[in-house]
Specification:
Aminoglycoside 3'-phosphotransferase, Chain: A, domain 2, Glucose Permease (Domain IIA), 6 domains, seven-stranded antiparallel β-sheet, alpha+beta, seven-stranded mixed β-sheet, 32% helix, 27 helices
Length: 1024
């Protein structure tokens, strides 16, 4: 096997460990110098590389480019190398098929010979080293997999007329002779599930696979497209791209679909879900060459056969060479992939791959209405009330790690009328599926199955279930595992018009399963089962789970998923349509599908304007939140690392309870005396230095900045304001007038003559970046403040209003001394310092409740906004009495919603949660983990990056190699993280800064999940 410069180096270079790698390398280095040298006698340095049969070395020759030396096993015939060199030559000029150049010896020979250190003759040849690393060292993206598919198609087209007698052979890696593994299934006697799976694959091979393959045309194929025989390079902004195709040593004549099956066996073991990986491979292939239905329909089982051959070979090799790591190099991934897809409905894979190939579906649409049905239950269930188990239903907790049957019981009992029953909907996203059987549980945002694909009929235990049509039993069995189906039947029915279909009946009594056997027949109206009780029904409230499938639906109920991944809904819904008619229920009553994103975007476009922007290239329909998690209409959970408004967490129970209680009690304004108003103002002021003793409550940060400016202009008798470049302070007209981010941007009206802009002190990518940058930024700010006063009395400075740590400006922490110097200049000019703490305050910075504290500043006015109410519209302005009293100039101050009793209840509860839950300490711990983790990740970045922040106010600025903003790459990262169910944003003058500011309940598990997703995303976009 030829490898790349980055392939790992094992202790030995051959599977059998016949030779000492260092000794062999030294010996062959001398021979390479003799055969390929230029006469100076300098021997290359050889480093062993992986290989199953042959010796492979990376050759470092100071007189030329690195190369790969292949020393063939003893007894290898020249024909074995000649056909490889001929295939490589045939592909040398094919665009999109990057094969290595064969390097002839000094005498012009492609193949040479020489004796090994034991005197045995071996064949040797040499190839140029291709750029890149083997695929096991790359993140396998759908784009890369599709590119590999395209390459395979180009290779097949170029080799279609290639012939060589050496290709007429069969050996253990020949998928058309894969049944050699059959006598070795005893290797897996200790793993019954795996043994059964391999047995089923062999059954397919004997019953259908062999004939299907023999009917397909044969041509030369590579036959070993594993991760170590494919190379890729990563380019910033492009992600991994294919750079090399290696090792034609296993090539033979076989149907071309075998190459796709072999490649898929390895590519499907990466981050991309297995079926989607195979679909990407097929989509890439069919860009260049079409595939037939016969080829596609055997692709998935053929891929599994390659896995079966691989795991069997590993088992045999372990017996023969127990100490050789090469023999199990891919065993763990192979076993994991086999287990992952063990219960997957073969119809699902077939139809998904057909769609990827642009072929029509093989399944005719299954009818959902049937005539002449006998009632399934003696009672009429068609008019039973319908449950709402969606995330919208706040009676069901969003904070769960395990399904809670008791909680579900409570919901059922609430809706039913004296135990008469109720219905659970098809296509409904549910949060109750929290156990490990539905997905990984180490973090709430992990991908899991959430959408129910059957009909639930909740009735008392022992309720009789009758056959709606005549038919036969396909499966009858008891599945006792917790949250499985309990007593289960799969029945085949035939309707009056001759349509044959299957239906699954789950959560039955054990007796229901015990009394029937596969093959039994029944008549319409026969009692076929009884509803099971807890625990024999799988541990659920008593009900029937009814699912409708086609005549070719799997016999095994394990392949009938009652709950599916929302990402795959469209295909699953074709396989298991709404079964309501079978139970005598109108389908529309129990169809819970949410509106499509396309329809919602169309409605939104009709109702508003395009400048009301959506986040992400693939927007999200959110309906629920809990802590640092957001939940969409399909039950998908997302880690929220962006929204700072729910400061102590989405839907915090204490805040929600206090607000709900106050809404029920009284919602009024500050024209009336209220202890809530006074208590909250005192609690808020207690978090400030003693000189702050006056508090104005308003309904937003925009309004708070308006009030702050009025305070400043009234107190000083001046009007001019100094603000920061790329600052943002609200949506009111005057707030926009001081927001450089808005007035200097698209649609802005330009800078007013009373507004003065201070350059943002970015020491990473700004105009000043060296060791003297802090002093230069400080001097520039001081000079600009001084220049304002020089314009005359009409431009005297009233205040400098700025975010202490610019957020929209790029999550910046100003350099040491900058803010202190600016404050001194402002005060010397007679102006006030207004600190906008909307983004940074309330404990976000961990050990400093406010950013101005961390900087040692003494602002005159502080502005607060959205986070103080955890979603309740709120703002606040804090100042000294003398400034507040000057505002009392005869004009009444009143804000209708500012300081309302409901807002004060929200604000006070937020302060209580921060204190009682120790959220400042949590922000410190999680922030340190994030800062250290991000610094470690971006230290490997292919582009310059600056990781910065404090606590949970974090940013990462990325520049292109030429120093310009990496806006496009930052956008790719934000969307890549969203695909991994982590929400973050971008900001800065050029949108080249990753913006990370989660709710401050963000914890260690959240940080670990975030950093894992970030590393994957960095690999995807080619930064690491």
């Amino acid at each position: 096997m030829t490898t790349s410069p980055d392939s790992p180096t094992p202790a030995t270079a051959s599977a059998a460990g016949i030779e000492s790698a260092p000794a062999a390398a030294t010996h062959w280095a001398g021979l390479v110098a003799d055969l390929w040298g230029d006469g100076d006698g300098a021997a290359p340095v050889l480093t062993p590389l992986y290989g199953e049969y042959d010796l492979n070395f990376r050759a470092e020759d100071p007189t030329g480019e690195p190369s790969v030396v292949k020393v063939m096993r003893a007894g290898c015939q020249p024909e074995h190398i000649r056909f490889q060199t001929a295939m490589i030559h045939a592909l040398q000029s094919v665009e999109g098929v990057p094969v290595p150049e064969i390097l002839p010896t000094a005498g012009g020979d492609l193949i040479a010979g020489g004796a090994d250190e034991h005197g045995e003759e071996r064949l040797i040849w040499r190839l140029a080293l291709l750029p890149g690393a083997t695929l096991d060292q790359h993140r396998l993206t759908e784009g890369l997999i599709a590119e590999i598919g395209d390459m395979i198609a180009r290779m097949h087209a170029a080799l279609a007329d290639f012939s060589d007698p050496a290709l007429e052979r069969s050996f253990k890696w020949d998928l058309c002779a894969a049944d050699w593994i059959s006598p070795h299934l005893s290797l897996f006697d200790g793993e019954p599930a795996l043994k059964s799976q391999l047995g089923s694959l062999l059954d397919w091979y004997e019953s259908a696979g062999r004939a299907a393959l023999s009917a397909l045309p044969r041509q030369p194929i590579h036959n070993d497209l594993n991760l170590h025989n494919l190379l890729a390079v990563s380019e910033p902004g492009q992600g991994p791209r294919l750079s090399g195709l290696l090792d034609f040593g296993d090539a033979l004549l076989n149907p071309r679909i075998c190459d796709l099956a072999i490649a898929g066996a390895y590519l499907a073991s990466g981050e991309v879900r297995p079926v989607e990986a195979m679909a990407a491979l097929v989509e890439g292939y069919t860009r260049h060459s079409p595939l037939s239905a016969a080829e596609i329909d055997c692709l998935w089982p053929l891929m599994l056969m390659r896995l079966a051959v691989s795991v069997t070979n590993s088992g045999l090799q372990k017996q023969q060479f127990p100490d050789d790591p090469y023999v199990v190099i891919s065993e763990a991934l192979t076993l994991a992939l086999l287990a992952q897809v063990r219960d997957l409905d073969p119809r699902f894979t077939r139809e998904r791959l057909r769609a990827a190939a642009g072929l029509p579906a093989s399944l005719a649409p299954l009818p959902t209405r049937f005539d002449g049905l006998h009632p399934m239950f003696d009672a009429d269930v068609g008019s039973l009330p319908v449950l709402d188990l969606t995330p919208d239903n706040v009676a069901l907790s969003a904070d769960r790690t395990q399904p809670d049957a008791a909680e579900l019981d409570a919901v059922v009992d609430t809706i039913t009328d004296q135990g008469t029953g109720c219905l659970g909907r098809w296509g409904e996203a549910r949060l109750i599926y929290g156990g490990e059987g539905f997905g990984r549980t180490d973090h709430a945002a992990r991908r899991r199955r959430t959408v129910h694909i059957g009909l639930d009929v909740f009735l008392p235990p022992e309720t009789e279930v009758r056959a709606v049509l005549p038919g036969r039993v396909v499966f009858a069995g008891y599945r006792p595992e917790h949250h499985d189906y309990g007593g289960t039947l799969v029945l085949e029915h035939q309707s009056g018009d001759g349509t044959t279909f299957c239906a699954l009946y789950g959560h039955l009594s054990k007796a229901s399963a015990d009394r029937l056997s596969a093959g039994d027949s029944f008549a319409a109206g026969d009692v076929i089962a009884w509803l099971g009780d807890v625990p024999e029904n799988g541990g659920w409230p008593p009900h029937l789970h009814l699912q409708l499938g086609g005549s070719d639906a799997p016999d095994d109920p394990g392949a009938w998923p009652g709950v599916v991944d929302a990402d795959d809904w469209d295909l699953w819904a074709q396989l298991f349509p709404n079964p309501a008619t079978l139970a005598g229920v109108e389908p529309a009553r129990v169809d819970a599908r949410p509106p499509t994103l396309t329809s919602m975007r169309a409605r939104r476009a009709a109702l508003t304007t395009a400048n009301l922007k959506l986040s992400y290239s693939d927007p999200v329909h959110m309906i629920r939140g809990q802590g640092c998690t957001l939940i969409d209409a399909e039950g998908r959970r997302f880690l929220d690392a962006y929204n700072n408004v729910p400061h102590v967490g989405h839907a915090h129970p204490h805040v929600a309870a206090r607000v709900a209680e106050q809404v029920q009690r009284l919602s009024t304004n500050t024209r009336y005396l209220s202890e809530l108003h006074l208590d909250y103002a005192e609690a808020l002021l207690a978090r400030f230095p003693d000189e702050f003793d006056t508090c104005f409550l308003v309904n937003s940060g925009s309004e708070a900045n308006e009030v702050a400016m009025r305070l400043a202009t009234t107190f000083t008798g001046r009007r001019d304001m100094a603000v920061s470049e790329v600052g943002y302070h609200g949506i009111t007209q005057k707030a926009l007038d001081i927001s450089h981010y808005k007035f200097a941007g698209k649609g802005g009206q330009g800078q007013a003559d009373w507004v003065h802009v201070l350059p943002i002190p970015n020491t990473f990518s700004g105009p000043f970046t060296g060791a003297d940058a802090p002093a230069r930024y400080t001097a520039e700010a001081e000079s600009l403040i001084a220049a304002i006063g020089a314009q005359g009395a009409e431009h005297a400075l009233a205040a400098c209003l700025l975010e202490i740590y610019p957020s929209v400006g790029g999550q910046l922490i100003p350099p040491p001394g900058y803010l202190q110097g600016l404050q001194s200049s402002v005060h010397a000019a007679g102006g006030l310092l207004i600190a906008d703490e909307v983004q940074t305050g309330m404990g976000r910075l961990a050990h400093h409740f406010w950013a101005f504290e961390q900087q040692g500043l003494q602002p005159d006015i502080v502005v607060l906004g959205k986070p103080i109410g955890n979603g309740q519209p709120m703002g606040a302005v804090l100042t000294r009495k003398e400034i507040g009293d000057a505002f009392n100039n005869g004009m009444e101050f009143f804000s209708t919603f500012g300081g309302s009793t409901v807002s004060c209840a929200a604000g006070r509860s937020v302060l209580e949660v921060i204190q009682h839950e120790g959220l400042e300490d949590r922000a410190a711990r999680a922030g340190t983990t994030m800062l250290e983790g991000l610094s470690a990740l971006f230290s490997r970045s292919a582009l310059p990056a600056d990781v910065r922040g404090l606590g949970l106010f974090l940013g990462v600025e990325i520049c292109e190699a030429d120093g310009g903003p990496a806006t496009a790459i930052v956008g790719q990262l934000v969307n890549s993280m969203r695909r991994r169910r982590v929400l973050m944003g971008s900001d800065g003058p050029h949108d080249s800064v990753l913006k990370i500011r989660p709710p401050i309940c963000f914890d260690a598990e959240d940080a670990a999940f975030f950093l894992e997703a970030m590393e994957d995303s960095l690999r995807e976009v080619g930064l690491v």
